[in-house]
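User: Amino acid transporter transmembrane domain-containing protein. Structure?
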Amino acid sequence: MGIVSVAYTTHAVFPTVVAEMKDVKEFPKALEISFGVVTLFYLLAGAGFYIYGKATDPQITFNLPERMQYVVSYAIIITICLKFALMINPVVLFVEKTCRNNGRLVSLLCIDPKSPEGTPIKPVRIVLVASCVLAALLIPYIALIHSVVGVFWSTFVCVVLPCVLALQLRNWLPIQYAAIWGLLGLSTVMMFTGLYQNILQIKSCYDGTNAYENMCN
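Assistant: Predicted structure:
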């Protein structure tokens, strides 16, 4: 539940989506389309699991023909690499801007003060990427920890908080009030359910009961 909630909601707070749009006013429309596409994908996944779930392996790629397994595996790896670059780019730009505004860091990192604002600062980028790799390798159960943090903040920021603010902004029709309250209640239940499941997974990994062996590795 936690990972599903993160995957379903985080595209709404993807930093580069708004920053790189030609017309920021079109963001709500883009958000509606993205939610619709993701909902369709999850409905298809749910239908597939309902029909074939018991006959599939835990890692569904093993059910594909051998050649397709390699294609899908490489596609997943490429997607992860591209997504990492897109997600870390706003962080890198913010850190680089901060470094340019700090005189001591400019001299320490050998930054040319006359260089344009968007010029990459290689030491900053190397340190950020290396720190992410080391964190993934050294911190135990980092996937579950990210899921715990992500399910709370992504669901809260993208669903719960907008519903709370919407109730305060204007007078709604009764059916609209019902829809907002329904979405607020459902998202709150999903958020705490995801948190509870992830905490149980971390406890299981820590105790060595291996109830969630695939998440503990």
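Residues 99 and 105 are 6 Å apart (CA to CA). The chain is about 75% helix and 0% strand.
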